[in-house]
Amino acid sequence: MINEFPQVMTIAGSDCDGSAGMQADMNTFFAHDVYGISILTSCVAGNSYGIQKAQDLGIDFIEQEFKSIADDFKVRATKTGMLSNDLIINTVVKNLQHYNFGKLVVDPVILTKHGNKLLTDNSFSALKNILIPLADVVTPNFSEAEILTDICIKKEDDMRKVGKLLRNLGAKNVIIKGKHEGSEDVVRDYILLENDDEFWLEHQYVNTTRINGTGDTLSASIVANIAKGKDIKTAITLAHNYTYKCIKNEIEVGHKFGPINHWA
């Protein structure tokens, strides 16, 4: 029957080297046997060395993308990635409230891999105050969780406190990605669910620079698993395992911060 095949959507920027952003999302969707749909918000000219130039799309065009998809497809789950300014975030929120695109996973892209902040104060405020409250799952990394809650995470109890604060912003379920650094043998992610259940997922630290697109892949995998009928806890667990395999089984593409391996 028409539109019975699982369809998922990413709302994000295009990374021309294919390692992150919309391209990483679409690669992940393909690997999970779901049909990927995309709403493009920005275009990035960059490579494994860094970003050289970026261009935002016009609001009218983004609005039309939403209408075009809603008029034809049945999206079961959606994720957001890089949303570069407050006008785009407001437009995305308005359309997510207007159309039914299934459960929402928000990847709060705040920092570059080098630790540089991507958002202006207005954009950060919009992300925190109007987008995250719509999230069925929010997936900040360690540093983004600290910025969103203004808490320095030093121990496990701090992760729990940050998880509750992110829930207080309106997100139903929270996964905080643990710190990836060579001083630790194991990376631990903290998950707090809507029903107050909490658990940890861990994997061995992988000493590699082939890490571009990790956050995109995790959130896209959660979306794909939700669309295939998995509950939130199972979707997060499967996505965690898949992303670790993508990091562990690296491919030699690019010279510096290369992509992870979506064939893993």
From TrEMBL:
- Please state the span of the N-terminal signal peptide per the UniProt entry: none
UniProt keywords (A-Z) are: ATP-binding, Kinase, Nucleotide-binding, Thiamine biosynthesis, Transferase
- Segments forming domain Pyridoxamine kinase/Phosphomethylpyrimidine kinase: 15-261
Q: What class of enzyme is it?
A: transferase
GO function term, MF aspect, one? ATP binding
Keyword Nucleotide-binding in the entry? The reply is: yes
Identify the species of origin. Catellicoccus marimammalium M35/04/3
Q: From its record, what is one biological process in GO terms? A: thiamine biosynthetic process
Q: In which pathway does it act?
A: Cofactor biosynthesis; thiamine diphosphate biosynthesis; 4-amino-2-methyl-5-diphosphomethylpyrimidine from 5-amino-1-(5-phospho-D-ribosyl)imidazole: step 2/3; Cofactor biosynthesis; thiamine diphosphate biosynthesis; 4-amino-2-methyl-5-diphosphomethylpyrimidine from 5-amino-1-(5-phospho-D-ribosyl)imidazole: step 3/3
Give the enzyme's EC designation: 2.7.1.49, 2.7.4.7
The record lists the lineage as:
Bacteria, Bacillati, Bacillota, Bacilli, Lactobacillales
Do the record's keywords include Oxidoreductase?
A: no
Annotated catalysed reactions? 4-amino-5-hydroxymethyl-2-methylpyrimidine + ATP = 4-amino-2-methyl-5-(phosphooxymethyl)pyrimidine + ADP + H(+); 4-amino-2-methyl-5-(phosphooxymethyl)pyrimidine + ATP = 4-amino-2-methyl-5-(diphosphooxymethyl)pyrimidine + ADP
Q: What is this protein called?
A: Hydroxymethylpyrimidine/phosphomethylpyrimidine kinase
The family annotation for this protein states: Belongs to the ThiD family.
Q: Which GO terms describe its cellular component?
A: cytosol
